[in-house]
Specification:
36% of the residues lie in helices and 12% in strands. With 66 residues, it is an alpha+beta fold. The chain has a single domain (8-62), classed as Irregular (Factor Xa Inhibitor), CATH 4.10.410. A hairpin with a 5-residue loop joins β1 (14-16) and β2 (22-24).
């Protein structure tokens, strides 16, 4: 059985936390930040948990060695 290639952009966008939760960052982080409030900008810097089962399954298939 050959090795599966990792989808590199998926591997860069997602990480597993220490507890095994799949984490993602918010998109659009650097775009037009001067207009946004500091509260909104703070949400871009924190990682969010991926909860949807279908998305988790897709990421597992795209980046199996993550």
């Amino acid at each position: 059985m050959p090795k599966i290639k990792t989808h590199k952009s998926t591997a860069k966008r997602f990480r597993y936390s220490g507890n095994g939760k799949l984490m993602r960052m918010r998109q659009g982080k650097g775009h037009l930040r001067r207009k946004k409030s500091s509260k909104v900008k703070a949400t871009y810097d924190s990682a969010h948990v991926v909860e949807h089962v279908g998305v988790k399954r897709r990421i597992k298939r795209l980046a199996p060695y993550l």
